[in-house]
Predict the structure.
Amino acid sequence: MAHLLLVTDHQFIHYNGKIYDKYVYDYNYFRDYLAVFDTITVLARIAESKSEQNLLLTSGDNVNFVSLGCSKGIKWLLQSKRVILKKMPSLNNYDAICYRIPAIACYRVHRLQNGKPSLFEMVGDPLDSIQSREKSFISKLITLPLKTLIRKQIREIVRDSIVGSYVSEELMKKYPLSKGRKANLISSIRLNAEDIKSKCDLNPSSVKFTIIHVGTFIELKNQKTLIRLIKKLRDSGYDCQLTLVGSGPTDYKCFQMAVDLGVCQHVSFRGQVTGRKNIIALLDENSFFIIPSLSEGKPRSLIEAMARGLICLGSARGGIKELLDPEFTFEPYDVDAIFKKIVDIRNHHDIAKIQARNIEVAEGYQSIILKKKRIELLNELKNASKKNLLAVPV
């Protein structure tokens, strides 16, 4: 029996004895891990819920969860060491570890684990996740030593891992694995053939057009730039609508901005939407997908939008640059640049050609392709765990 400990900072939800998720982590997400390991223990933050409505069922056979509470932000940073120290004695029955980075829990567990073979999955840049232009000078000053510490801890995890995966080439270059050890470029997305559109039938040059964005409402996702964009478009005479899908700490601030700018009737806040079919239905109602994030790994939402043939624009950050050509990228806060690109696309571009290119890129992220890469790395980890077990004195 081979047992895997998966460590993440993701927050799952507990209701009536089962574990759920708001986003993409249903039970099927763990099938690639279960193809190699017999059981998985997920060490994660877990919040309580009064209902299972609009949630995805995550728990199932051979996937167990250990709760680290549900603290967030600075509180979680301060409490994490104490919480994980309490949990570690009960987590001895595992053969290998999978670290999903960025995660404070990963840095803590790595310092405490007993030399077990490990794999890391770097799904974003941990340093980018703690910086924002909107933070105060004092806040930025406090984060400087934190960034130094996190950089050191990431390099330790990468140094000690048997194998690893990155969502972007940029991250692979920034945090390289030790020479001679295997690494792969693997997105976290699980994209099926039926999720990819076969026919290009978009008409974003029609009089009225629509823009959609899918993402958690946090400063890093920078939804405020999209609200400013709608203001500029409408002031310039364009009949357009913005749909924002997601929830989070900054959703009310964004709503208030839409009110203050006088565009609230042209910005639809859809809240959290679960289930890929529901997301696809929303994407298919729109012409443009825009992602103005300050930092990204390789965003699933962008790949899903490309798979549906939407015209996609994104900030020139992280893995976005590896998905979109330079003519479709911009600096995160540059509303004027986004405005000009939309006008140019509507007036001059071959829309069918853009759609075909986006769909072709998305096809490379199908589950059937990425699954092979994941299982190859997981098998390397499992084999290393067997050797580690044989090396332990009886």
The first helix runs from residue 31 to 34. The chain has 13 helices and 15 strands.
